[in-house]
Amino acid sequence: MNRPVDYSLYLVTDRGLAKERSILEIVKKAVSGGVTCVQLREKACSTREFIDQARALKAWLDQKGVPLIINDRVDVALAVGASGIHLGQSDMHIRDARCLLPEGSLIGISAESQEDALAAERDGGDYIGISPVFATPTKTDTAPPLGLEGVRRMRKAIRIPLVGIGGIGLSNGAGVMTAGADGIAVVSAIVAADDPKKAARALKKAIEKNGT
C-alpha cells in the first residue's frame, strides 16, 4: 500500500452474524454506506473457501479503492494479493510475516495492553487494533475493557494508527475517536444490522460529526 490508509470505519466480518446473507453482499452495502477498510475474518471454513471468498471480496473492493485485510492467515493473504494481514498475539510474529509478505503490505496487530502495543510499534506494525474498548459479546476470551481512558493512554504512548475494537457502535463510536483512535472497528453493529448500508452511513456520519 503506497497511499495512506483510511482506518476510520473499519469493518470486521463475521458470518455467524450475517443472517444467511453472503459476506460479499454485506460488504458491498457497508462500503456503499461509508466503510473505509475491510477485514475478512473466518474461523470455521476451509482454506479453499476462505481463499475463494477473499478473492471475490478483493475483486470488488479494488474497484472501490478499499483495502482488504485478512485475519490471521498469511497464506490466504498471499494467495489473493490482499492489502495486508491482521495478527493476534499468538499468531505468526510480525517479523516473520514481513519476510513473507510483499513489500508495502499492511500488518495490523491486536493489542490488549500498552506493552503489546509498544512492542508491535517497535517491530514495525502499520497499525494497532486496541481491544476490547468496551465489553463485547462477539469475543469472550478478552482482557477487561480499556474504556475511553485506556484509549487516551494508548494514544499518548503510540505514534502509529490506533483502531479501537470491542463493543463499539453508534452510541459510543464518536467517543472512541475523540479519545484518540484513528478509527473504529465494528462487527455486529454493521454485520448484524438489518440494513448494513444504513448502519454504516449512520456510524460514518457520527464519527465525522463528533469524533474527528
Automatic annotation (TrEMBL):
Keywords in alphabetical order: Magnesium, Metal-binding, Thiamine biosynthesis, Transferase
Pfam families in UniProt: TMP-TENI
Gene of this entry: thiE
Enzyme class (EC, first level): transferase
Cofactors: Mg(2+)
Family the entry assigns: Belongs to the thiamine-phosphate synthase family.
Name of the protein in question: Thiamine-phosphate synthase
Pathway(s) where this gene product acts: Cofactor biosynthesis; thiamine diphosphate biosynthesis; thiamine phosphate from 4-amino-2-methyl-5-diphosphomethylpyrimidine and 4-methyl-5-(2-phosphoethyl)-thiazole: step 1/1
Function: Condenses 4-methyl-5-(beta-hydroxyethyl)thiazole monophosphate (THZ-P) and 2-methyl-4-amino-5-hydroxymethyl pyrimidine pyrophosphate (HMP-PP) to form thiamine monophosphate (TMP).
UniProt binding sites for 4-amino-2-methyl-5-(diphosphooxymethyl)pyrimidine: Q39, L40, R41, E42, K43, N71, S110, K139
Gene Ontology cellular component annotations, sorted alphabetically: cytoplasm
Span of domain Thiamine phosphate synthase/TenI: 9-190
Record bears the keyword Membrane: no
PANTHER family per UniProt: THIAMINE-PHOSPHATE PYROPHOSPHORYLASE, THIAMINE-PHOSPHATE SYNTHASE
